[in-house]
Amino acid sequence: MKNRIFYVTLLLILLGCQHEQLNEIPNEKASNEFFVSESEAINVSLARPTAAMTRFYTHDKEIESCYAYCSEESATTQFYAINYKGGGFVIVSADKRTIPILASSDEDCFVLEEEYLMPEGLWGWMKNISCVIDSLRTNNLTQDELVKSMWKSFVDISTRSDDGDDYDEDGPDDEVVTPVCQGPNYGFRETDAIVGPLLNTKWDQVNGYNSCIPKTCGMTNAPAGCVAVSLAQIMKYYKSPSTYNWNSMPDALPTDATSLFLLEIGKNIKINYDCDGSSASNDNALSALKNKYGYITAKLADYNYDKVRNEVLNAKRPVILSGGSKGFLGVYKNGHSWICDGVEVMGSYRCVYDEELKEYYTLRIAEYLYLHMNWGWGGRCDGWYSFSDFHPTGNEHSYNYKTKMITSLIPTL
């Protein structure tokens, strides 16, 4: 069987997804055969890890909380945000027609809150995932065989004996899976490569990072702007231009120097400061990078997943991403900017029983990818997210409208 590249499931057709609400786990269970219950999601989050996957989840983790993200229209959970005691989270799909793990982090926690309290890019990701799953259910689509195998690759309680041996329902009765299927190639594991996260910074738009912004909003100042934070974190990563005192701008502590730097960037990209959110255009951001800060090779283009993958994985350069939502008459609104600073290529394996040889062997059935996102909100919810495509067809309300990328960020000063 040839390996197939499986591009997560954001390529599916999206239909009607406009309003979401945030709820704790509902009591009712969807009748759909592909629905994932709370207990099933927790089992996935605590599934036996392989040696290469300890950053995702481990068997000795304890659950701190489990919340559901629900569609207001269907009132049926789209995914679960599961937080671990001591930090870290996993987002598990509530539908078995998508990959099981949608996102993860080994630090921080994932708290479902209203839109204005969350990173704009993250909110857009949540809306798109919600739309994907709603579309699967509305159109009653079938389960892809690769996705089915991915879910199967998690160790299920019903196929594990008390002494920890694995059994395969496709093999002979009571046949214990051989050690080859208990090794690191069983289930999810790292495959080709992993790069990142490249950035160490956890800069924010508020919480002291906006102390020098001239526009006041009651007892505080307007946000520094997500575009400014994205550019600033890129320059801090390269410590370029070299004329700045980068030591005066710590990775995770606001200082006057950092706030002044964000203000300077804001002026150069012509930010419109507003209490509800400060905005700037991608064109102005590109111009400032090239003409003010020496990133003369920087390029602005429509989002292309392969380009982002190669830029981060091969060139080991972070990429600035941006997107928004489509308003009335196609007007671009709710724009947001963040940084992709990591790529991980993952593989899914399963045990297969050979009738002729009378033995098990591991079969690599799929490859898929996660991107590490620095949302520019003080490190909040930074993590690895399934992000294969930003342009699913058929949904005029997609949050990721006119998605752009700034690549080839190579310093010269």
CATH architecture of the largest domain: Alpha-Beta Complex
Query: Which CATH first-tier class of the largest domain would you pick?
Result: Alpha Beta
Please, what is the CATH homologous superfamily of the largest domain? Answer: Streptopain (SpeB)
- Helix/strand/pairing category: alpha+beta
Number of helices: 7
Instruction: List how many beta strands DSSP finds.
Output: 14
Mean pLDDT: 77
- Which residue ranges are poorly predicted, with pLDDT under 50 across at least 5 consecutive positions? 1-31, 48-55, 156-180, 183-188, 327-332, 389-399
What does the main sheet amount to? 12 strands, antiparallel
The coarse overall form would be globular
Q: Give the H and E element order.
A: EHEEEEHHEEEHHHEHEEEEE
Q: Helix content range of the residues, please?
A: 10-25%
Q: Which topology of the largest domain does CATH recognise?
A: Cathepsin B, Chain A
Number of domains: 2
Family: Belongs to the peptidase C10 family.
Keywords: Hydrolase, Protease, Signal, Thiol protease
GO molecular function, one term: cysteine-type peptidase activity
InterPro entries: Papain-like_cys_pep_sf, Peptidase_C10, Spi_Prtas-inh, Streptopain_sf
